[in-house]
Amino acid sequence: MSISEPATVAPARLCEFVAAILRAEGLPEADAASVGELMVEADLLGGEGHGVFRLPRYVERLRAGGYNPRPNIRVERERGATALVDGDNGFGHLVMKRCAQEAVARARSHGIGWVGAHHSNHAGAAGVYAKIPLDHDMIGLYVAVGSANHMAPWGGIEMLLSTNPIAVAIPSAEGTMPILLDMATTVAAYGKVKLAAHKGEAMPEDWMIDGEGNPITDPAKAAGGSLLPIGGPKGYGLSLIFGLLAGTLNGAAMGRDVVDYNADDSSVTNTGQFIVAIDVASFHEVETFKREVARIGEEMTSSALRPGFDAIRLPGERALSTRQRRLAEGVPLSALLVEKLNALAAASGVAPLE
Known about the structure:
The protein has ten helices and twelve strands. It is an alpha+beta fold and 354 residues long. It folds into two domains: 1-63 and 315-354, Orthogonal Bundle (Hypothetical Oxidoreductase Yiak, Chain: A, domain 1), CATH 1.10.1530.10; 80-186 and 229-302, Malate/L-lactate/L-sulpholactate dehydrogenase, NADPH binding domain (Ribosomal Protein S8, Chain: A, domain 1, 2-Layer Sandwich). The strands form three sheets. It has a seven-stranded mixed sheet. The protein has a three-stranded antiparallel sheet with strand order 9-8-10, with no helix packed on it. Helix 1 packs across helix 2.
């Protein structure tokens, strides 16, 4: 393909491409395939800032010793419905896949499974993991400590908090889309800042401020700036609570202990996350619940519109529609990203995207 034009790549080919590079860089075949699938899933959902766009950075850290290419991901502590997983500094995608599987298994036995992790890493889009329990007629909830501190506490100037995202997935009736909330506790995830810089685009004025409180619109000047929390002090409070639950409770990094994975190639990040699986059958007849979710969703979307709006959408509606379209049509990649990915492939001895 020409690097002067945007490309559209079949999801299976993109998964294979990512996996091939990771295998060449030392990951076992099954692990490389899993990471590839989970990375591409973020792109399918429209989360370009957390998908294959991140591969060059992952490989940089892998080569520098920042990741363990062959981790022993294991349950370190468990009691009934809960477990704590040691990610052994492996790819966050692998750690959270294991945590999701563990949470689902415990929910089958106990009605709910809560599994936390320490010594994990950046895992991509939160919604990817929250929706894993959907296949088991379960509700999924995922929270993470972000991979770098980009937000000051409300009223402060020191970067002590991250975007600390939450994602919740709720099953709905057959023929309707599930509810999928995936959001940062900041107005914009830092991945969007990186994506804007990659594309040479300006940022909206409500994303970041400098130490004087002035808006930052040039993503090239984002270093040292503070992302703004959603809802002012409310977003700050959510970020703090999520960090304590996903980080501190699991023995993972929080506050000044958080390592900036964007700037540090080799330090262990000790990223913390947790995932909860809730078995609907423990609370409600499954199909009745899913029909009610669909009915309430219809109530929302068919209600009266505010002037200036053309539709009311449910959380995740756009992402899940994007996923359906990209599964059929392919994943769009910018010319610049294709160029970077092919340079990475050449350095790893892997065939380029074609």
